[in-house]
Structure formats: structure tokens, C-alpha cells
Amino acid sequence: MFRNREDAGLQLAKRLQSLKLKDPLVLGIPRGGVVVAAVLARELGAELDVVLSRKLRAPYQPELAIGAIGEDGEIYLNSFAWEIPGVTEEYIRKEREHQIAEIERRTKLFRAAKPPAHAGGRSVIITDDGIATGSTMLAALHVLNAQKPQESILAVPVAPPDSLDRFRPLCNRLECLLAPSHFAAVGQFYDDFAQVEDDEVVRLLREFQTAHSARISSAHR
Predict the structure, then answer these.
(1) Secondary structure element (H or E) that encloses residue 32, with its range
(2) Total-model pTM
(3) Is the pLDDT of residue 105 over 90?
(4) CA distance linking residue 28 with residue 48, whole number of Å
(5) How far apart are the C-alpha atoms of 177 and 28, rounded to whole Å?
(6) Which of 25, 31, 149, 153 is disulfide-compatible with 125, CB 3.0–4.6 A?
(7) CATH number of 5-53+120-219
């Protein structure tokens, strides 16, 4: 169990602190994942940024992910997607348009606080506050790998074992603190799993961007 997302981030940082990282970058999936990512970035002396991906919701069951879409517009469907009542090509088209619009909204909001970081040739840690079906993380990893990092490290506080198996071929290293066989939802492993708002993500990005710019300026003096 974790007290909150900050506690989860601290525990993850302890797991990763012995790694030799090249120009490290930590990417968080908004919104809750950015809180975990901010703690990792602070503890590991890394740059903080976001990677935008959104789940594709099932008809009549919006909490169920039938897949996800990355900020590159690519769709990744779960194997069971076509078995869900109401899922048709037309439904997926409309859901894709809806989630693309939300990604564009968030891009405008978050990029006003921080320009996108370049992941190429760097050690990149990608995180969230937990993984359920894994669709959103799958899309995020594809977005990251297209940028050709030197190494990609998936680090999460909690995920079901079967979800983790999907990611091993897509990253160089995988770290997960808890992989319980009995898994209902990410929130069950947190004492405090309060919703994170856009304002908190913007605040964290601005705070780290200011600190990152100061470090670069100091290094060039």
C-alpha cells in the first residue's frame, strides 16, 4: 500500500537511484502520473515532462478501456475490444475524435507551461500512478520509442502481472513495486487517491522547468 502518489514516487525513486542514467528525463502520464513523475525527477535529478495518451472508453462503460490513443494519433486496441457490445468502427472513429480533441486541449495547456523535452539519446523513465488494463501506457510507450531514447525505463508503483507482460518487449527495463494477483483498480492500493487537476500538472511543469533552466544556465557560466 501507498500513502499517496508522493509516497509511491519516493519508493520508486529508491528502486531506481542506483542506475547510471544518461541525461535523465522522466515522463508522467497526466494527470496522476505526473505527481509520481515529479517526485522521481526531483529525487533522481532529472528533467520532468508529460507524455499524452488517452484511453478509448467502452460504450456504456466509460471506466473500461477498450484501447488507447497516443499524442501521435495512433490507436492501440485491446484484444477484447471487438467483443464489447456497441463497439463498431464508427464508434471507435467518434471516440478517437473525442480523445484527440482532449489531447489537443491538454497539449495547449501543458505546453504553455513547458515546451516538449527531447527524448532522443537519453535515459527516459516513463511512469503513471499505476496500470490497470495497460492501454494508456502502451500508447505512451509507442510515442516514446518513436523518439529513439538511449534507454526506456517503465517504472510504476502497481500493476497486475498480466499487464506487465505486455510491456517487457517495449522497454529496456521494467520496475514495478507491487504486482498483486488480486487486482480490481489502481486506487485500492492507495490510502489517498484524490483526483489530480490540470492546475496541479501545470504547477509542477512550471516549477521543474524553472529549475531545469536555472541548472542549464549555471552549467554554461
Answers:
(1) helix 32-44
(2) 0.90
(3) yes
(4) 8
(5) 17
(6) 153
(7) 3.40.50.2020
